[in-house]
Description:
Radius of gyration: 22 Å
CATH topology: D-Maltodextrin-Binding Protein, domain 2
Order of helices and strands: HEHEHEHEEEHEHEHEEHHEH
Bound molecules: pyroglutamic acid
Number of helices: 10
Distance between the termini: 67 Å
Oligomer: single chain
Helix content: 40-55%
Strand content: 15-25%
Protein name: Alpha-keto acid-binding periplasmic protein TakP
Number of domains: 1
Structural class: alpha/beta
Mean pLDDT: 94
CATH architecture: 3-Layer(aba) Sandwich
Keywords: Periplasm, Signal
CATH superfamily: Bacterial extracellular solute-binding protein, family 7
Pfam families: DctP
Number of strands: 11
Organism: Pelagimonas varians
Subcellular location: Periplasm
CATH class: Alpha Beta
Amino acid sequence: MTMVKTTVALGAATMALMAAPAMADKWDMPMAYSGSNFHSVTGAEFAKCVTTGTGGDIEIVTHPSGSLFPGAQIKRAIQTGQVQIGERLLSGHQNEDPLFGVDSIPFLVSSFDEHAKLFEIAKPHLEELLATQNLTMVYSVPWPPQGLYFNKEVNSVADMEGVKFRSYNNATSRLAELTGMLPVTVEAAEISQAFATGVAESMVSSGATGYDRKVWESLSHFYEVDAWLPRNYIMVNSDVWNGTSEANQNVIKACGEIAEYAGTWRAKEYTGFTMAGLSAGGMEVGRAGDQLMGDLKAIGETMTAEWLEAAGATGQAIVDAYNAAE
Ligand code: PCA
């Protein structure tokens, strides 16, 4: 009898709670890439995980395709509290600090495993730098290896002279300059149009981005060169983070860990899948020839030296630790 009464009383209390729920905190999460891209899919799952895990205390709403802020503005929007959280390719901000370009040094790493080793070493430095900008890193997911797209056959850097090249960060603009191409910055969400209208005729990017944007409609060749693997970073405004309960912070961290694992796994799976997709779309897909590869490696050495010069002791320490690691 007592038990029944208790159960009824508890039931009534639950009903009362449900009738007057605590106001959910809504966090907007701008993302620059199309909703179908694996980063955006991972972000949407992360958002769901947080909403479920915090019992609805925090509701994260993702805005893919640059619909709330285009890529280039997302970092600032988080820093200044216009949004609580967001995803950004940090190498797009290398002009603020060379460390943001650590994942875009040509030919330092070429595979997911090498890249993971570099990231592990660089991560604490990045977190420290982000903290000075009022940003807290939650998770980060790599893009697949970067290759070169053209609308013609290319066998050497000489063949690139004068080509209009779509860039997405400092390293890609510099690559264009050093190869005699003409850089034009275009967000991923806009590239199909840029290629269709001839604003750009080439880019360095992953098979994933070419596939997502159906670039075979305008371009004909994809050369695998594995130049680098840049990363997207999910960051929270540090004031928002510090105002979040420890319990909810723990949920967000745990959801971030799952997202980083799942996103990385997707990036690997997507690499082969999207190469096949580009081929099926009618593109010539394959490894760059020796001449082109040799030319690019020489340019990579110049860019690596430039990065080390700009990044000073911290940059050197990261690269040394990377080279010394097993
Ligand atoms: N896709 C993004 C960045 C790196 C990548 O593979 C882009 O092209 O903008």
